[in-house]
Amino acid sequence: LAVCKAATILILAVKPDQVTGVLAEIRDHLTAKHLLISIAAGVPLAKLEAGLAPGARVIRVMPNTPALVGKGATGFSLGTSCGAEAERFATDVLGSVGMAVRVDEPLLDAVTGLTGSGPAYLFSIAEALIAAGVAEGLDAATADALVRQLFLGSGTLLAASADSPTKLRENVTSPNGTTAAGLAALGAAGGREAIIAAVRAATARSVELGREADRK
Questions:
Q1: Which end of the chain is more exposed for a tag (fewer CB within 10 A), N or C?
Q2: CA–CA distance from 210 to each of 36, 111, 192 (Å)?
């Protein structure tokens, strides 16, 4: 509570089922000068605002772990009492560790499923690629180094190129070549569908967490 009195920016970073208790604890210590930034997954702005005094300024944020290296992808939504100043603050501060995009609050669940959880999908793919390299005879250290560079190079190319991901994929895929064979196997194993299903499941879980938070 001493922090509430001294600071103007407060970060709410607790589990969804702890939000109600924390808001009750800080409610009487916030003033119009404060801005509450919540990264509590699935907890809607309406619940956050209901737990605070009328007029409280709240921003709901969904960052991801690449922010740790200045390459984050963050979605945010503004509460009803936030104006242009709060939006500028969110864009500048969240954008200082990557990119920050304002979205309508219902779309934050999709941001959660796509980029909030997305790093884990890519790390899982990296694990699989390393294991595949080892299975084909590479030692683990070499496979690891190659996959790390593969992700770095491919991600940099994707970010720098004006071409779509589809075009970049086509550029690598010669007819009847090795890449075509690999993509065919990936498709037969349901690789694309599995990734879409992962985003869908994570998005649905974010929605579910919000409903659970509303009931508490």
A1: N
A2: 18, 14, 28
For the sheet with 98-102, list strands across it: 9-12, 35-38, 57-62, 72-78, 98-102
Q: What is the pLDDT of residues 2-44, one digit of tens each?
A: 445 556 888 999 888 888 899 999 888 887 788 999 998 888 9
The alpha carbon of residue 69 and the mean position of all alpha carbons in its chain are separated, in whole angstroms, by: 14
Distances from the Cα of 96 to the Cα of 57, 74, 114, 173, angstroms: 21, 11, 21, 36
Q: Return d(Cα 108, Cα 105) in angstroms, integer.
A: 5
CA 53 – CA 161 distance, rounded (Å): 48
